[in-house]
Specification:
By secondary structure, this protein is an alpha+beta fold. The chain has three domains: 5-301, Vaccinia Virus protein VP39 (Rossmann fold, 3-Layer(aba) Sandwich), CATH 3.40.50; 314-374 and 381-405, no CATH class; 413-476, Roll (Archaeosine Trna-guanine Transglycosylase, Chain: A, domain 4), CATH 2.30.130. The chain has helices at residues 5-16, 49-56, 83-86, 99-103, 121-130, 143-155, 168-174, 198-207, 210-226, 246-255, 325-338, 341-354, 400-405, 424-430; strands at 35-39, 71-74, 90-92, 111-114, 135-139, 161-164, 179-185, 227-237, 260-261, 271-272, 283-285, 295-301, 356-358, 361-364, 377-380, 382-390, 393-398, 416-419, 435-436, 443-449, 452-459, 464-467. A hairpin with a 2-residue loop joins strand 20 and strand 21.
Length: 476
């Protein structure tokens, strides 16, 4: 492909002073870009990885991505038509983009902020590590991209996420000192995407890297304010330029004393800057020596004695519920029909600690909405569904987001209709068509693929199942 002359000249100079050879670098832009998928760790036990990969492509031998413990290379495009995609079992993602989510090392109970989250690959990976404990705050400044982020958060079955559509400068007014970890996959000049997206070349020629570097400094400043003392920050880009990578972090450390680079053990395919490098401990993926597009990543720790203060993020807690007795009864009756005794008891306890009923709608907020102030909040926690009047009776109509958070072992056998991966009924369900089964228990059921929940249906006495899969998510 034809690369900008200014880019070629700059990279020749930067590679001369780097620890990486130039041989093959420019030729790599003519190679076919690699594809990848991640398996959702919060839904899938590792023992099932191989079966899922074979279901997706029986003819293909899939290789592990060495810098992601749930990532795999694939030669075929992972289809959005796959039932596994709709069930949140898999997430298609460019292989190199999996490095920051692995690097940050989120743990259950952490409060993690993803400041530049769309379309959601890194945010979802973080949430999978949290596994329902702690809070993910996923932000996207573009309203259109925030919609894509929301769809992926819901599809992957994440109950404890807050999705914001904000400028990071506004976020720091309300979220100062709350985060255990922050990830900044910064807007950049996109040089690592040249071979995958020709429009990235045109954008680079028009704007260059300088405007991006100024924006990156602003975002890092906001990240520092929101990160608590002793917290960790991962900064990454999909570009090669030292101006947007090493220089930004060196400038950040110089203006924010107390930060240190956290070194990582050597990983195949990832170069680690040595003590002689410009930013020791930083990491890169190069397309001419690795199986992935260009990526830069560095892991920082903030000093525990930093002057910045820690402000705990309050969780939502019910104070009064007397006026919502009918709604509570309807919700609990619905869930009791679906869940095992143990799972129902756990769900009931969660509603006692944090259910919010607003008008016709029920949700389990991830945080107290007062803590978010005037921030533009797209989603706060898990939206359960709405209440509808049916004569004198009040019934609960679930959201599909609720179905995607459920697991097979939480459900009664009578409440699940699970199909094999290649069953034609799954395509019919995803298209919104009515299904039929042998006569079974009348009432609400969960439709699943190989035990992974897809959505709800309603079975009548004759075995016909009314399709409740959302119209906006259906296959065409």
């Amino acid at each position: 492909m034809k690369l900008p002359e200014a880019f070629i000249n700059r990279m020749k100079e930067e590679l001369l002073s780097s620890e990486v050879t130039e041989d093959g670098f420019f030729e790599s832009f003519d190679k076919e870009p690699l594809k990848g998928i991640r398996i959702n760790k919060s839904k899938v036990d590792k023992t099932r990885y191989e079966d899922i990969l074979k279901d997706l492509n029986p003819e293909e031998s899939v290789m592990d991505i060495p810098w992601c413990d749930c990532g795999f290379y694939t030669k075929t495009e992972s289809s959005g038509n796959s039932p596994y995609y709709h069930a949140g079992v898999i997430y298609p993602q460019e292989p190199s983009a999996m490095l920051p989510g692995q690097t940050i090392g989120a743990k259950p109970g952490d409060i993690v902020i993803d400041l530049c989250a769309a379309p959601g690959g890194k945010a979802c990976r973080i949430a999978e590590e949290l596994n329902g404990e702690g809070v993910l705050i996923a932000n996207e400044i573009s309203s259109n991209r925030a919609k894509a982020l929301l769809r992926n958060i819901e599809r992957m079955g994440i109950p404890n996420a807050v999705v914001l559509n904000e400028d990071p400068i506004n976020m720091r007014k309300f979220l100062a000192g709350v985060a255990d970890k922050i990830i900044v996959d910064a807007p950049c000049s996109g040089e690592g995407m040249f071979r995958r997206d020709p429009s990235a070349v045109k954008s680079w020629e028009k704007y260059g890297p300088i405007p991006c570097s100024e924006l990156q400094d602003t975002i890092l400043e906001s990240a520092d304010i929101m990160l608590k003392p002793g917290g960790e920050l991962v900064y990454s880009t999909c570009t090669y330029g030292v101006l947007e990578d090493e220089d930004r972090i060196i400038n950040f450390i110089n203006t924010h004393p107390g930060y240190e680079v956290i070194p990582h053990t050597e990983i195949q395919g990832v170069t680690h800057a040595s003590s002689e490098g410009k930013l020791p401990g930083s990491m890169r993926i190069w397309p001419h020596i690795s199986e992935g597009d260009g990526h830069f990543c560095v892991h920082l720790r903030k000093a525990s004695d930093s002057e910045s203060s820690f402000m705990p993020l309050p969780s939502y807690c019910v104070k009064k519920r007397g006026k919502n007795v009918r709604e509570m009864d309807a919700l609990l009756a619905f869930m009791k029909d679906l869940l095992t005794e143990e799972a129902y008891a756990e769900f009931k306890a969660r509603t006692e600690d944090g259910l919010l009923i607003r008008g016709e709608h029920a949700m389990l907020p991830a945080v107290d909405e007062k803590a978010l102030g005037t921030l533009t909040t797209v989603k706060n926690g898990l939206y359960l569904g709405e209440f509808k009047s049916k004569g004198r009776e009040l019934v609960f109509a679930p959201s599909n987001s609720l179905a995607l958070t459920l697991k097979r072992d939480e459900l009664k056998d009578s409440a699940v209709i699970s199909y094999s991966y290649d069953a034609p009924e799954l395509t019919r369900y995803l298209k919104g068509e009515t299904l039929s089964t042998e006569t079974g228990t009348k009432g609400n059921v969960v439709i699943a693929v190989e035990g992974f929940c897809l959505g709800f249906g309603k079975r009548s006495a004759d075995g016909m199942i009314k399709n409740l899969y959302p119209k906006a998510w259906r296959l065409m």
